[in-house]
Amino acid sequence: MKNISNSTFAKTVQTVDFDRSQLKSKIVHLGFGAFHRAHQGLYTSELAQKGNSDWGYCEVNLFGGEALIQALREQDHLYTVLEKGADGFTAKISGSIVESLHSDIDGIDTVLQKMVESQVAIVSLTVTEKGYCADAASGKLDAQNPMIVSDLAAPDKPSSAIGVIVEALRLRKEAGLKPFTVMSCDNIQENGHVAKAAVLQFAALRDEQLSQWIEANVTFPCTMVDRIVPAATDEALTEIGDYLGVYDPCGIACEPFRQWVIEDNFVAGRPDWDVVGAQFVADVVPYEEMKLRMLNGTHSFLAYLGYLGGYQHISDTMADENYKAVALKVMLEAQAPTLSMPEGTDLEGYAKRLIERFVNPALKHRTWQIAMDGSQKIPQRFGGSLRHHLANGTSFELIATAIAGWVRYTTAVDEQGEAIDVQDPMAAKLQALYGEHGTGADVVKIVLGLESIFPAELGQNPQVVEQVTQAYEKLIADGARATVAGLRG
Ligand SMILES: NC(=O)c1ccc[n+]([C@@H]2O[C@H](COP(=O)([O-])OP(=O)(O)OC[C@H]3O[C@@H](n4cnc5c(N)ncnc54)[C@H](O)[C@@H]3O)[C@@H](O)[C@H]2O)c1
């Protein structure tokens, strides 16, 4: 296998030509996964490329990915990001990583020692939702979680990300060192608050004073992260290898778009990521809402109406001019007016970029995949908007159609009479309900009555029931494609 650091690339590639010896491990990142490589890793490399930045990463994996860390070391911590646009691909070599550790290879003590080095200013995370060991319903630390139980029994040999952070902070406190900022980059609403709650609660279970010290001295900025980064399958790695002319086992492919909105709240300094396109703001919540309603809400609309219309991928739905036009209406008419954004936010521009992303045929984003877990997603993506329209007396026909699409989808039989593989924690409950009440229009009222999905003031609002029922009747009578065509106006 050739090493990517000394290869001649077969195609034009943006290589790293800054002095990497200037970079220090000022950020320890937990979770060297797909997303981090294509997102924060690349932002930080591009910042160094601009000059005047000594911010580099020590990557840490606590779970899995041993081979990935070994491969990264073998190629001098360089890796490829292949940005796949509708009009062509660009390969970028990322050079922001200085060193890497794996708790199973190097031992947890080595990881902790690194986190206690004086130059470490930020510990960032992409450890997925389960990495926070929080109880889904209460949002509180799940003290019964086996990793938490084991970390409380041996707190100086932690295995969970939360246990590792708390022990590293304790060691810094003992050593009289300044703490670091803890920055979550996981796709979780108010991710900084989730991280903070887990860290403080775990620390308090160890030592109340430690928890108080962390609360007084550590910040947990929220971030909104966005970029579609599919898993690095063999097929994806082969595609990257074919493009580069050299196989990169750490390579990752993604869409060209990226976004990073960061709460500007760091206790020990931070890179000027805004120089390479990130945004520092006082409050991330409005941007999360923007993404949830305009991106994710429209994705859900396209997933249900698209799947029912016989389209396998989001890009297939967007190749249908009716779906494309209605997707823009969902963004600008149903969702954007419900947002309270800081002055100067260009929601039309945001919608235009979303449409470009959805059109991109290079990303095979399946409608079935986005349709998953609708009972959890629908309230977040449409609940706030529905409230807004009801309060203002404005039309919510598009949202009613999205919800009707979800109801129709969860009946688990498509327009051709074929079974739909409905993946949803409420799937069994919904099946039982359809078994009892049938799938005629009357069932809509019963589904909307499920208070674990729809709060009563929405699900039992007569206008909501009427409009979703009407949309459902249309879907049954005319099918999804004709229903969408009818919404184009
Ligand atoms: N892939 C995307 O398109 C995308 C987009 C936006 C946000 N994100 C977010 O990024 C995060 C990571 O996603 P990904 O696509 O990189 O996944 P991935 O599977 O490639 O990487 C997951 C990483 O998390 C670590 N991890 C998993 N469970 C852990 C645990 N219990 N404790 C500690 N570490 C753990 C793994 O070691 C791995 O490094 C997720 O929260 C996801 O929502 C992903």
Task: Please describe the topology of this protein.
Blueprint: E1 13-14, E2 24-30, H1 34-38, H2 40-50, E3 55-61, H3 66-74, E4 79-85, E5 88-94, E6 97-102, H4 103-106, H5 108-115, E7 122-125, H6 146-153, H7 161-175, E8 181-184, H8 191-206, H9 208-217, E9 223-226, H10 234-244, E10 252-254, E11 259-263, E12 279-281, H11 285-308, H12 314-318, H13 321-335, H14 347-359, H15 367-371, H16 374-392, H17 397-410, H18 427-437, H19 443-448, H20 456-459, H21 462-478, H22 480-487
Parallel strand pairs: 1-5, 2-3, 2-7, 3-6, 4-10, 7-8, 11-12
Antiparallel strand pairs: 4-5, 9-11
Describe this structure in words.
- This protein has 489 residues and is α/β, with parallel strands linked by helices.
- Helix content is 49%, strand content 12%.
- It is built from 22 helices and twelve strands.
- It has helices at residues 34-38, 40-50, 66-74, 103-106, 108-115, 146-153, 161-175, 191-206, 208-217, 234-244, 285-308, 314-318, 321-335, 347-359, 367-371, 374-392, 397-410, 427-437, 443-448, 456-459, 462-478, 480-487, and strands spanning 13-14, 24-30, 55-61, 79-85, 88-94, 97-102, 122-125, 181-184, 223-226, 252-254, 259-263, 279-281.
- A five-stranded parallel sheet has the order 6-3-2-7-8, sandwiched between helices. A four-stranded mixed sheet has the order 1-5-4-10, with helices on both faces.
- A hairpin with a 2-residue loop joins strand 4 and strand 5 (88-94).
- The radius of gyration is 24 Å and the shape is globular.
- It starts with 12 loop residues before the first strand and ends with a helix.
- The model is unreliable at 5-10 (pLDDT under 50).
- Bound molecules: nicotinamide-adenine-dinucleotide.
- Residues 31-36, 61-65, 126-128, 130-131, 161, 186-187, 225, 227-229 line the site of nicotinamide-adenine-dinucleotide (NAD).
